[in-house]
Specification:
211 residues, mainly alpha, 4% strand, globular
Length: 211
């Protein structure tokens, strides 16, 4: 969609656009992932709303979300004053996500929710994660060498570092997980819990978080 030359990459020999941070189509999808329910969970920002914000040059990347104002958003199609106020408030509330959610939201190749949580627990800050070498990364459970290389390459990208610095400047401060002293006598120590069926009063995601 951006006119870049496609490159064959990976075991599945997929054709990829390598203009990760300048391709408009990829930027919209990157922001859509960033605000999704399992990432920063910003209500009112579906792909349709994001397309409108991009089309009207209100945003061009992740950190632009935190510069949006009600005055900018309200006149746009499908928005309005009340929707704009609610959206700006929801964006402001997303400034202190858990570190695990923030790592997942960044969209690092092959880093899903579980691995993002493991990385958050191991490094406790984005700065420490961004500076980790391959030995430190593969020491984390469920991080294999190729995944470690993906993480290192991600944080070596100058555009990623610029984006992270801008997010920090906009007041985005991920919360490090609390360190836990494990009670080896506890009935759940080193146990896995499997959730099945449906729940009343909470979502599956909320149940997993409580567990």
């Amino acid at each position: 969609s951006c006119g870049s030359t496609l490159v064959q990459q990976g075991e599945k020999v997929a054709w990829r656009c390598m203009a990760k941070w300048s391709c408009p189509a990829q930027q919209i999808e990157r922001v859509a992932h960033f605000v999704s329910r399992k990432a920063l969970n910003i209500a009112g920002l579906g792909i349709g709303q994001l397309q409108i914000l991009f089309d009207h040059h209100c945003i061009s990347g992740l950190s632009d979300l935190y510069r949006l104002t009600t005055a900018q958003i309200a006149p746009l199609p499908r928005m309005g004053q009340r929707s704009a106020e609610k959206l700006v408030a929801a964006i402001a509330q997303s400034k202190t996500p858990s570190l695990g959610r923030f790592i997942y939201a960044l969209g690092i190749d092959e880093v899903g929710e579980v691995v993002a949580g493991k990385l958050a627990g191991a490094f406790l800050s984005i700065k420490a994660l961004s500076e980790a070498d391959i030995d430190a990364l593969v020491a984390v459970e469920e991080v294999w060498p190729i995944l470690a290389e993906n993480i290192i390459a991600f944080f070596q990208d100058p555009q990623v570092l610029a984006c992270l610095a801008d997010l920090e400047a906009q007041g985005v401060q991920p919360k490090a997980p609390e360190t836990v002293q494990h009670d080896t006598s506890h009935r759940f120590y080193q146990k896995q819990v499997v959730l099945t069926g449906s729940f009343s009063g909470m979502s599956r995601t909320e149940a997993k978080a409580q567990l």
